[in-house]
């Protein structure tokens, strides 16, 4: 997250950072690809200084690896970061989902419901890209619907870096997909009926976190909201 500026005109640093972030998240700049600041400056139509500043910003987000006097490259997601990144997303968005779902406008509610269906379909794909492309708009919808500007800024600053860490080539074997799928189904139901509490529990379960409400004392077989 970067400090706000009073000058609303975009800086070359910001333009370069946003262009490069879009290319990294979109896959046109692939993990491990070397980044030459002079080549990038020529392509982006600016000097090397804003490009270097943009790369430093992206390194702070975890999208770029900087090794002085060695190389600058697009970061390579590590398998050991997959579960922690997923859990971090759950911690960040769980509470937001709980307070936002009951007050979603009809258009936003329908969009989230539809996008969750698309995400469920994409879980059957053999690579991470379709699922990542389908999940990110869901997170962004909740960011857009959050009415707390400080929370919104924190979520926007963290989202891309965490989602990027999920793009490990062996993602299919790194996560318990049947459990995640069940939790996403529960989340879709919660969105449909505007149940914020159920939505929070489903979000935590989908992100491999324990039930925030704790075990149900009336049920010995309670395994969280992810079992539907």
From TrEMBL:
Domain HTH gntR-type stretches: 10-77
Segments of this protein annotated with the region Disordered: 207-228
Transmembrane segments: none
Cited Pfam families: GntR
Comp. bias (Acidic residues): 218-228
SMART domains per UniProt: HTH_GNTR (SM00345)
Protein name per Swiss-Prot or TrEMBL: GntR family transcriptional regulator
UniProt KW Disulfide bond keyword: no
InterPro entries (alphabetical): Tscrpt_reg_HTH_GntR, WH-like_DNA-bd_sf, WH_DNA-bd_sf
Keyword DNA-binding applies: yes
Keywords of this entry: DNA-binding, Transcription, Transcription regulation
């Amino acid at each position: 997250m970067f400090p706000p500026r009073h000058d609303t005109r975009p800086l070359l640093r910001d333009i370069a950072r946003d262009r490069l972030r879009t290319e990294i998240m979109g896959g046109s700049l692939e993990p491990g690809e070397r980044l030459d600041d002079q080549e990038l400056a020529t392509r982006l139509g600016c000097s090397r200084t804003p490009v270097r500043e943009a790369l430093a910003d992206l390194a702070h987000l975890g999208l770029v690896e900087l090794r002085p006097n060695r190389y600058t490259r697009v970061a390579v997601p590590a398998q050991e970061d997959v579960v922690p990144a997923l859990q971090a997303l759950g911690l960040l968005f769980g509470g937001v989902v709980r307070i936002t779902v009951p007050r979603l406008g009809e258009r936003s509610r329908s969009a989230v419901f539809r996008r969750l269906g698309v995400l469920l379909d994409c879980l059957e794909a053999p690579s991470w890209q379709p699922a990542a492309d389908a999940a990110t708009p869901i997170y962004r919808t909740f960011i857009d619907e959050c009415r707390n500007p400080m929370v919104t800024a924190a979520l926007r600053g963290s989202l891309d870096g965490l989602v990027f860490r999920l793009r490990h080539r062996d993602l299919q074997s790194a996560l318990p997909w049947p459990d995640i799928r069940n939790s996403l189904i529960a989340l879709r139901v919660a969105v449909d009926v505007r149940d914020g509490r159920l939505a929070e529990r489903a979000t935590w379960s989908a992100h491999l976190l324990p039930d925030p409400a704790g075990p149900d004392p009336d049920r010995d077989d309670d395994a969280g909201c992810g079992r539907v």
